[in-house]
Amino acid sequence: MGEGMRFELLGPLRAFRDGTPVDLGPPKQRAVLAVLLLQDGRAMSYDALVAAVWGDELPAHVRNLVQKYVSGLRRAFADAGPELAWTGTGYRLTGAAIDDLRDRRAVLREAVAARDAGDLRRAGLLVRQAEAMWQGDFAEGLAGPCLAAERRRFAEKRLMVLEARIEAELELGRYHECLHELVHQVAAHPLRERPVWLLMLALYRSGRSSDALLAYEEARSRIADAMGADPGPALRALHERVLRQDPALLGGGSTPVLLGGGGAAPAA
Question: Which of 43, 106, 146, 162 is the most exposed place for a label (fewest CB within 10 A)?
Fold first, then answer.
């Protein structure tokens, strides 16, 4: 018996039937599918589906388009497992799991367990594995208000995993190897404090405490200019520890993003 149909959303929406790619139709049809997949088996009303896919920019004969796309998706599924039905209150897609999101959650849970067991090397490898599951932006290339919002949400999750992977590298003593990537992350996200925190830690552990203090001052200036505020408490606390040359910073002095916070991995 074949493995049925698998779906992926960490990048372009893709489906595979017994390992073979499935043609999911034109972009708007794929957007309808992506929105329904995100409902996780819950019914979605016609009005909610239309708003999620088109927003306020409704094309002519939108009801006919929805029916056309639903029919196209049913043909694509063709006894492969997923069922797309009208329930009387809305469209419901069942028997369809988003494999890469499920796998990513499972790997992150394993990373937490490895961290809790003191196996930092395995935790780091697992976080790297979770990061490698991304094949591009979430639901890449598909338009619509719902998917745009989800894309922003998952972009944040992707950054958190990247930062957790870098932190795992730092905990394994790879300070010099991480510096270039951290400088790039700070430049790409100048108001995000976590990359600055990690850069300061990497610089300090590399014997460059003055550069760590400079990184803080540059971040403080950017945040003040853009937001009229001071850096958050975590960044300020690290700055104070660098100033007083806290020996605990040389090892085990971090506060992991992914692998801390009560030991729970972030949701999808």
Answer: 106
pLDDT at residue number 5: 87
User: How many residues are recorded in the chain?
Assistant: 268
Q: What is the DSSP string of 163-218?
A: HHHHHHHHHTT-HHHHHHHHHHHHHHSTT-HHHHHHHHHHHHHTT-HHHHHHHHHH
Topology annotation, domain 5-94: Arc Repressor Mutant, subunit A (1.10.10)
The residue to which tokens 């999808």 are assigned: 268
Residue whose entry in the numeric block shows the structure tokens 């993003």: 257
200, 166 in Cβ contact below 8 A? no
8 Å CB contact between 196 and 216 = yes
Q: Would you state the pLDDT for residue 116?
A: 86
Q: Alpha-carbon Rg of the chain, whole angstroms?
A: 23
Report the Cα–Cα distance between both ends of the chain, in Å, rounded.
Answer: 29
Domain 173-260 has CATH 3.30.565.10: no
pLDDT for 82-100, tens place per residue?
999 999 889 999 988 898 9
Q: Determine contact, residues 252/259, Cβ cutoff 8 Å.
A: no
Residue-level pLDDT at 3: 58
Instruction: Mark the ranges of the chain whose per-residue pLDDT is less than 50.
Output: 1-2, 253, 255-268
The answer to whether the beta carbons of residues 199 and 182 sit under 8 Å apart is: yes
SS3 call for 131? helix
